[in-house]
Amino acid sequence: MEEKVSPDAGSAALTARIGRFFGESERAVAFTGAGISTESGIADFRSPGGVWSRYQPVLFQDFLASAAARRRYWQMKKEGYRELRSAKPNAGHRALARLESAGRLQAVITQNIDGLHQDAGSSRVLELHGTSRHCVCLGCDARYDPDLIQERLEAGVEIPLCDRCGAFLKSATISFGQALPATVLREAIDLCTGADLVLALGSSLVVEPAASLPLQAKQSGARLVIINRTETPLDDIADVVLRESIGESLTRVLGHLGLDLAS
Ligand SMILES: [Zn+2]
Description:
- The protein contains ten helices and nine strands.
- It has helices at about 10-25, 35-40, 60-65, 65-85, 90-100, 115-120, 145-155, 180-195, 210-220, 245-255, and strands at about 30, 105-110, 125, 130-135, 145, 170-175, 195-200, 225, 240.
- Helix 9 (about 210-220) links the parallel strand 7 and strand 8.
- Helix 1 (about 10-25) crosses helix 10 and helix 5 runs parallel beside helix 10.
- The protein is elongated and about 55 Å long.
- Zinc ion binds near residues 162 and 164.
């Protein structure tokens, strides 16, 4: 058992230690939450003032059952779309893409729906909560470009319907009350239980499966690194806890590995 490094130890020492973990790791995985995208200007839906805080999330059952709920759902999507659409990946996203291309990271498992990991160049991204990068028809599974749906919403359509079959369209994100994609979840569990290093980044690790994936990894023998602005329930079992910017921390970790963001 190695000695514990607490958050008050110098952050340079902590990022050096994360660098050493990567040096000793063969199966590293990153797990990301909203905190990595707040550095790109996307408000955490739980944070006050963001567009999401003004709306009660629409449950999937209500979306199916009630026209009022569908109207509310699309009103919320319409208002949040610009912020999502204009967001660019930040140093944290780019550092993870760099780690993957250097063969240091197997995959990113994310709770985010913004597509910024892919924009940054990550190729293996497991999206537990789906993606805002397309819309789907709930009747025939046809896919729609969300730009097109946004145009319709802005032109006054309140509840967009499928051109082919007339059924309801919905963003390809997972709503409350909607099952997580089973194959993606299975793959995420396999990655975490097989990992030797897990970085939990920008997640409060409270909502499932965010809480249990890094825990399962740790219980299966992985080292656990947590970078998050606030405390998490897993801080006590983590090997390193950092309360700093994900982008700055990971850029320093890259430096310890002789990598940089541009290369
Ligand atoms: Zn359809």
